[in-house]
């Protein structure tokens, strides 16, 4: 009997795998509806543990260096946090600096900021299950605490924190201008906002074309995103609050973070123990995400999406006159 060459078998297996992934994707449509969709999605992704198994404690892309170098997937994620600290100038701040981590996930950044920089961190997320898991993962003697809170209407008074930090929560925010204002409102005058975000190309001059529009719609619907801002557009929204001192600084880290997408799929292949641990439902659930991951890679690789970094300082003006007297500056 003729032997089928290994390369043909692998190609065949890949085609079957992708076929299953696309069939699952198409047969279980998703659509963003409200903040509830976001909270429910993260509650489910946290409860079943699959996301944490593959992505670890950081639900964000990794930083692979400039230019990017091959790197361990989880190492790239914690490196991202340190790169963002340096880019934001937070490594110059003293221990005890108060930080609000907006959209904190299961607390990966918060723990690094508390453990490695001595900051006093409060992490907030819309998902109660993430608060539970973040608290479980955090040693009691670490200065990091977690609460459910809505970034669209933060429960903290004006001028509460020295630093506001946020990674990849922006695409979940339905009103970007409200989000921009809330981030700056809770900062003390002189305080620093450092934020990382998935952004869309600024389409005000060149609108999205025939293939970009449906791809963008999928990226929104699949992972509970009402809209992506552009880097330029969100910087303008921050400045339009009237709460920033000087210009908002931005950077594009698309190149540094791009290897994360293929690395995500690669994790599923090189760690097949996960297939046993989470059984057939877990396998199908993970495989269902493959088309979205490939679309993300396509979008970030072709310039439809960009990985935006934002840095701003809070001006010494009140966001709301009634709270003016309570605001104290960063010492
Ligand atoms: C992609 S995850 C990033 C998590 C975390 N920053 C990290 O890097 O590991 C997005 C986070 O934003 C949170 N989020 C989404 N909408 C929110 C809202 N309206 N208020 C607070 N958190 C929100 C989600 O619950 C989730 O924790």
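-> sequence recovered:
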């Amino acid at each position: 009997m003729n032997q089928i060459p290994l390369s043909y078998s692998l190609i065949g297996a890949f085609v079957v795998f992708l076929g299953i992934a696309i069939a699952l994707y198409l047969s279980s449509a998703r659509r963003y509806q409200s903040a509830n969709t976001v909270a429910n999605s993260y509650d489910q992704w946290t409860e079943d543990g699959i996301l944490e198994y593959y992505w670890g404690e950081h639900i964000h892309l990794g930083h692979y260096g400039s230019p990017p170098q091959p790197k361990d997937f989880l190492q790239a994620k914690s490196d991202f946090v340190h790169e963002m600290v340096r880019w934001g100038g937070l490594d110059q701040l003293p221990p005890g600096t108060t930080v609000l981590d907006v959209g904190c996930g299961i607390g990966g950044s918060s723990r690094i900021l508390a453990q490695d920089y001595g900051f006093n961190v409060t992490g907030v997320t819309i998902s109660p299950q993430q608060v539970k898991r973040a608290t479980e993962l955090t040693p009691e003697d670490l200065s990091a605490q977690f609460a459910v809170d809505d970034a669209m209407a933060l429960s903290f008074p004006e001028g509460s924190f020295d630093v506001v930090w946020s990674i990849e929560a922006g695409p979940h925010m339905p009103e970007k201008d409200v989000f921009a204002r809330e981030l700056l409102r809770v900062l003390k005058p002189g305080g620093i906002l450092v934020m990382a975000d998935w952004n869309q190309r600024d389409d005000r001059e060149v609108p999205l074309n025939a293939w970009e529009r449906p791809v963008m719609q999928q990226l929104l619907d699949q992972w509970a995103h009402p809209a992506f801002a552009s880097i330029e557009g969100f910087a303008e929204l921050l400045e339009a609050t009237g709460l920033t001192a000087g210009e908002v600084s931005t950077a594009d880290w698309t190149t540094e973070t791009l290897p994360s997408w293929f690395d995500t799929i690669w994790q599923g292949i090189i760690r097949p123990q996960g297939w046993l641990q989470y059984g057939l439902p877990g396998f199908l659930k993970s495989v269902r995400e493959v088309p979205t991951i490939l679309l993300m890679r396509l979008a970030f690789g072709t310039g439809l999406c960009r990985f935006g970094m934002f840095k701003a300082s809070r001006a010494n003006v009140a966001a709301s006159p009634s709270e003016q007297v309570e605001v104290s500056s960063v010492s």
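DSSP finds 13 helices and seven strands in the chain.
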